[in-house]
Amino acid sequence: MFDHPDSVIGVWPGEGTDVEADDELVYRLTCEAITEDWVVEEQHFLPDGLEEIAPGPFLAAVVSSVDPSKLNGHDAVRLMQARARLVSHDEAGKLQAMAEVAFSSPGDADSPVERSPDAVEYAGVEVAAGLTLTRRAAETVLDRALSLAGVLHRVRKAFSQGRLDSARVRLFDQLLGHLPEETIDVVLDRVLDDASGLTTGQLRARFGRSRIGSRP
């Protein structure tokens, strides 16, 4: 993809064009230098600093312009990790939107922005219909979304930053979501920063050493 292993990203958010970009255009925009005899290289390279790009539209544009079959094994791993961060970011955004659905009265496209102080009674039905889920599945994921919007807001932030995946977030919710916020904060102070480097089994063991039980 990029011309050289030491390539840097040439276009940052807000510096793009109004043209609807396809993969080739994104390639050109994100190369450090563009020449008139530009050609697609046989091997693509990911830019230095890829791991420091916050998950969001710009990271999505960068990785979407890469052909994975033209990466060496090292960059294929980096691409896999970048896409995993994007998945976490998008899933966190979906759950944040779901929490807003829970406090929004049903309406049409012209309805004003209004929120109820309490979750509306049939929020699970709205989620189930919107995502084509069973009522039970919708209510399960809605409970998690509300936990992340409330007492587990620190977990939601880490999720949105791509530092946690869905499996770890589910574990945090199962083991902490039913506890008082003061207790949650104490446990998160001990384990949250290390969670991205732990498997779910290791993370569960860390909770065990903190004597935190699962949700009944």
- How far the N terminus sits from the C terminus, by CA atoms, comes to 50 Å
Q: Provide mean pLDDT, rounded.
A: 83
Radius of gyration: 21 Å
Helix count, DSSP H or I runs of 4 or more residues: 9
Largest sheet: none
Query: How many domains make up the coordinates?
Result: 2
Q: What is the H/E order?
A: HHHHHHHHH
Instruction: Give the overall shape.
Output: globular
Topology:
Layout: H1 23-30, H2 57-64, H3 73-102, H4 123-131, H5 135-149, H6 153-160, H7 166-176, H8 181-191, H9 200-209
Helix pairs in contact: 3-5, 3-6, 4-5, 7-9
Describe this structure in words.
By secondary structure, this protein is mostly helical. The chain folds into 2 domains: 1-71, no CATH class; 90-209, no CATH class. It is built from 9 helices and no strands. Helix 3 crosses helix 5 (135-149). The longest helix has 30 residues, at 73-102. The N and C termini lie far apart (50 Å). Residues 3-21 and 32-38 have low confidence and may be disordered.
List keywords for this structure.
9 helices; globular; 216 residues
